[in-house]
Design goal:
This protein is mainly α. Helix content is 35%, strand content 7%. It has a domain of 50 residues. The chain has a two-stranded parallel sheet. The mean pLDDT is 86.
Length: 86
């Protein structure tokens, strides 16, 4: 986990002392097994893994910063029509 000088881990631990934080040592599939909610802040394949694992998932990102591949747009439109993507 790269630290940008923001003291992220320390700030999370101070605010939520019981929070378990994985710094990238665990496999994603193992983390998803125990998850009740997955949150993704950028466009990646990670949210697809969460969907496939039947984990409730929240995805948010700036579409101007993370563009969708043209071939993915129809699928996001399907998710929008289903009320899953907003």
């Amino acid at each position: 986990m790269y630290e940008y000088g923001w003291q992220d881990l320390l700030r999370w631990q101070e605010r939520y002392p019981g929070l378990r934080i994985d710094t990238g040592q665990s496999k994603m599939r193992d983390l998803l097994k125990d998850a009740r909610l997955a949150v993704y802040t950028y466009n990646s394949t990670g949210y697809l893994e969460a969907f496939a694992s039947n984990i409730p998932t929240v995805i948010f990102w700036d579409p101007a910063a993370c563009l969708l591949r043209g071939s993915a747009i129809p699928y996001f439109e399907d998710l929008k029509r289903a009320g899953v993507y907003h």
